[in-house]
Amino acid sequence: MSIRRPEANSIRWVCFCLALSLFAVADALAAQSGPSPYRLVDDWAQLPGGREMGAVGKVTVDPDGRHIWAVIRCDAPGDQFGWECLDSDLDPIIKFAPDGRVVESFGSGLFIWPHGIDVDGNGNVWVTDAVGTARIPAGDTRGHQVIKFSPTGEVLLRLGTPGREGGGRTGFTSPADVAVADNGDVFIADGHNNVGNNRVVKFTNDGRYIMEWGKTGYAPSEFRALHAIDIDANGRVFVGDRSNNRIQIFDQAGTHLTTWTQFGRPSGIAFDRNGRILVADSESDDVQNPGWEMGIRIGDAQTGWVSEFIVYQWGDPRSTAGNGAEFVAVDVDGNLYGGEPSPRRLQKYMRVR
To answer: How many C-alpha atoms does 66 have within 13 Å on its Cβ side?
Structure first.
């Protein structure tokens, strides 16, 4: 009887995993060259009263599957990027009807740089303020927070220490995004920057600390700029580890399951109701992720195979400023919505085939 050496099996397994990764990346690159099955809908978002569109942060879909929530960072000039709502009295949290009309807005005066947003199963809206400490005026109690609102804008809960960066159970440092699980547990992507907390923090829906995982680095369960977080239909937590050019996938107890690199440099993550993952890549360029194009990649949430790609045709591959959709959402009919910060646009892409 022959006995297989354990190290031989390990080598075969590593080779198998490497082959799968290479096939996935090849599939992603092939999808970049195919025709897009989506058509851009011109001038979809209609802000009231002549308000100009500001930099757009995260977009997400309402539990009804048709209304769209978006972070619109007031209307400050471009040279105020990173703190657009500092002196504004405009509402940065906006709900759009399917036809692009605004049907709800709130949050005026509560944020300096609203960034991430999610809506839980009860319609409550969770928003992060990812402003950096250097852009918080002395004595200002905004920033480094996550605020929970009712569907009509009543403040229900605040997480974090107002206006002060921190860690542990009570502090955040520029929290980039938030995702709420089906059972109401809340996952905060705490760390918009390469150097910072770089962790995922888990709370109950009423704000009780449960656990956390992660630190700054390159290994599994380590991050550099957690820019996006979302949860798929199977309850897995997907983290956009943007400066490491990868998505890391965990269970809800923080166990690392796998890592995907075939979706480019992930800025935003969403899932549709047909088991597909959508990833917005607004920063792939000749410097930060050579060989990849900016746009929205769409694939199978189970296998990770990329099948479709919406290229951002106006991107500059020499730029590191970020262009195109930084965040993405999808409605019940399969239409996509891209939040574009630098171009200051909220785009709708209608599926045509």
So the answer is: 6
